[in-house]
Design a protein that fits this description.
Number of domains of chain B: 1
Largest sheet of chain A: 7 strands, parallel
CATH architecture of chain B: 3-Layer(aba) Sandwich
Structural class of chain B: alpha/beta
Number of strands of chain B: 9
Structural class of chain A: alpha/beta
GO molecular function (chain B): GTP binding; GTPase activity
Strand order of the largest sheet of chain B: 4-3-5-2-6-7-8
Number of helices of chain A: 16
Subunit structure (chain B): Binds to RNA polymerase II (RNAPII).
CATH class of one domain in chain A: Alpha Beta
Family (chain B): Belongs to the GPN-loop GTPase family.
Strand content of chain B: 15-25%
CATH class of chain B: Alpha Beta
Strand order of the largest sheet of chain A: 3-2-4-1-5-6-7
Mean pLDDT of chain B: 80
Keywords (chain B): GTP-binding, Hydrolase, Nucleotide-binding
Helix content of chain A: 40-55%
Oligomer: heterodimer
Protein name (chain B): GPN-loop GTPase 3
CATH superfamily of one domain in chain A: P-loop containing nucleotide triphosphate hydrolases
Chain lengths: 378, 288
């Protein structure tokens, strides 16, 4: 990478400062309002593997809240979904056009979804404000997440969105399980380990929704969760998989099961809805007792994440401007402004060209940084 | 005539070299740095004079920083599938991978023919964890490789920037185990993007876990009801060392070399190939 002329670089930095400032002004000053923690509505974030039936499940939740006179609000965070069977009050697709993003930034489908979510995350304080203003009129906010689970669970934007919710309302994560696919003990365990990873990542109450019980009853799952010896026997008899790893893991998972609520549901038939909402209420209570104390820490964490993201964006913006040589950068100025194309910061993706910094300001101070790391190097 | 045939003629015995192949299956969440890892490893091997062939198994991949030896997109492309079958990106990906599984005995075998003796392949996989947890596609692919005498090892990458505290660390471990349990292979866990990590002081706690300290921190972060679970997980990770992470800084040759050495041990690369004789006479044994 050729070193930039110093004056040119200064201008660019100045420009990017201006842009970040204008981004700031777009945000509704959430500072004051989000300090009021609300007991309602309960935010239900629905996550699950692709194909587990998240969207159908959410659809069922929407119908149920309507039928049961519970006041629900729907938020769709999946930018690539083609059509939703329900109407969303707030839909990421209104703000971010997934296909345009892909074209604009020359990304593949994964990159497109990730970037779309990033774009939306920058505006998320506005979403929270909208919900706060209507808090007295709402019981539940139902959130549909992108089809690929890790775009939400292992991304900065997913974390920002989760924290934005969790620091303002009681938030419960619902992990949708594809019950028929999980009848194999190893797949079941793999699924449960992933659910456990979500529990620790979000630090929020977790409800397992065993979906598709119309196809396969989830009784076997309940049995496996109750009694780990039954589970271990099931592993032994499956494909002669005799791993001690599986056995040790099943012991740890036993503790996991006792800390979560599991409900069998069917999005198609509507079975399990009442039990599901009971579990949600119980989890929300748990949230108020246990997690609320954690609130200040969560808020601080969220602010930290935002700050880091903004720094990254600054850097990326600077690089983008360098490469486009100061060409026009258009910014979306409103939540529903469809016309303006948005040039935004892209999370580092697999497909990105990795640029190795050779500028003198980024010089690696080898001695300082590597002391601890040295033992890992040959 | 091959070398085996020449030897057979000379000694009147049936010689057969056991051809071993070596393979790394590179997996991890989207954005963890898999493709970057592959290209860095490729460049490193070029520098040190080792053959290394990178295979792209991601039908949705666009740009490559490495020369691709085998590419799933020659077999099936995500775009085509999405267009022709009207599937969304997830459905299309599943379709592509299942198509790969169906082609194990033709396209895959044909391509693998080019890589036999002591050849080293790195498979750059798609990010989606569903491929390992929910469907046996990749597991079957691995089984097929093993049948072709490849020693396979899984390399799981996690972005080090996400591991900001012990809860994220545990989360990362669980996520890694979730894939491991399905693949049943020796594995190496890598904390990638160490070069992007601003504050390295923290990360050392997770590269060399001190169970008691971690447990105390974990109990603080999670509510009291999780005490038993916290303890069980820290034991698994800290004491039994079930999940060990190695740091990777791609700016540094020696970091890449360290990772490579660890993997080499994992798949037994570099141990001299045995010449085995297909004969009733047992005396010959190993010809070292």
């Amino acid at each position: 990478m050729d070193p930039m002329e110093s004056s040119g670089e200064e201008n660019i930095v100045e420009e990017s400062h201006k842009l970040v400032d204008s981004l700031d002004k777009l945000r509704v000053s959430a500072g004051s309002s989000s300090s009021n923690f609300k007991k309602k509505p309960v935010i239900i974030i629905v996550v699950g593997m692709a194909g587990s039936g998240k969207t159908s499940f959410l659809h069922r939740l929407v119908c149920h809240t309507f039928d049961a006179n519970k006041r629900g609000y729907v938020l769709n965070l999946d930018p690539a979904v083609m059509s939703l069977p329900f109407g969303a009050n707030i839909d990421i697709r209104d703000t971010v056009k997934y296909k345009e993003v892909m074209k604009q930034y020359n990304l593949g489908p994964n990159g497109g979804i990730m970037t779309s979510l990033n774009l939306f995350a920058t505006k998320f304080d506005e979403v929270v404000s909208v919900i706060e203003k209507r808090a007295d009129q709402l019981d539940y906010v139902l959130v549909d997440t992108p089809g690929q689970i890790e775009i939400f669970t292992w991304s900065a934007s997913g974390a920002i969105i989760t924290e934005a919710f969790a620091s303002t309302f009681p938030t419960v994560v619902t992990y949708v399980v594809d019950t028929p696919r999980s009848t194999s003990p190893i797949t079941f365990m793999s699924n449960m380990l992933y659910a456990c990873s979500i529990l620790y990542k979000t630090r929020l109450p977790l409800v397992l929704a065993f979906n598709k019980t119309d196809v396969a009853d989830h009784k076997f799952a309940l049995e496996w969760m109750e009694d780990f010896e039954v589970f271990q026997a099931a592993i032994q008899s499956d494909n002669s998989y005799t791993s001690t790893l599986a056995n040790s893991l099943s012991l740890s998972l036993y503790e996991f099961y006792r800390n979560i609520r599991s409900i069998g549901v069917s999005a198609i038939t509507g079975a399990g809805m009442d039990d599901f909402f009971k579990a949600i209420e119980a989890s929300a209570d748990e949230y108020m007792q246990t997690y609320k104390a954690d609130l200040d820490k969560r808020k601080a964490e969220k602010e930290q994440l935002e700050e880091e993201r903004r720094e990254k964006e600054m850097e990326k913006l600077r690089k983008d401007m360098e490469s486009s040589q100061g060409g026009t950068v258009v910014l979306n100025t409103g939540l529903k402004d469809r016309d303006a194309a948005e040039k935004m910061m892209v999370e580092e993706e697999d497909d990105d060209d990795f640029k190795i910094e050779e500028d003198s300001d980024d010089a690696i101070d080898e001695d300082e940084e590597d002391e601890e790391m040295n033992r890992f190097y040959v | 005539m091959g070398s085996c045939d020449i030897l057979s003629v000379l000694f009147g015995l049936d010689f057969c070299f056991v051809t071993m192949g070596y393979a790394q299956l590179v997996i991890g969440p989207a954005g963890s740095g898999k493709s970057t890892y592959c290209s860095s490893l490729y460049e490193h091997c070029e520098t040190v004079g080792r053959t290394m062939n990178v295979v792209n198994l991601d039908p949705a991949a666009e740009i490559f920083n490495y020369p691709v030896a085998m590419d799933i997109r020659e077999l099936v492309s995500l775009e085509d599938v999405m267009e022709e079958l009207g599937l969304g990106p997830n459905g299309a990906l599943m379709y592509c991978m299942e198509y790969l599984e169906d082609s194990l005995h033709d396209w895959v075998d044909e391509e693998l023919e080019n890589y036999r003796d002591d050849d080293y392949l790195i498979f750059d996989c798609p990010g989606q964890i569903e491929l390992f947890t929910h469907v046996p596609v990749l597991k079957n692919f691995v089984a097929h490789l093993q049948q072709k005498n490849f020693n396979v090892c899984v390399v799981y990458l996690l972005d080090s920037q996400f591991i900001t505290d012990v809860t994220k660390f545990i989360s990362g471990c669980m996520s890694s185990l979730s894939a491991m349990i399905q693949l049943e292979l020796p594995h190496i866990n890598i904390l990638s993007k160490m070069d992007l990590l601003q504050d390295k002081s923290n990360i050392d706690n997770y590269l060399d876990p001190e169970p008691r300290t971690l447990l105390a921190e974990l109990n603080e972060k999670m509510g009291p009801r999780y005490a038993k679970l916290n303890k069980a997980l820290i034991e698994m990770v800290g004491e039994y060392g079930m999940v060990n992470f190695i740091p990777l800084d791609i700016r540094k040759e020696r970091s890449i070399q360290y990772v490579l050495s660890q993997i080499d041990v994992c798949i037994q690369f570099g141990e001299d190939a045995d010449v085995k004789i297909k004969d009733e006479d047992e005396d010959f044994g190993d010809d070292q």
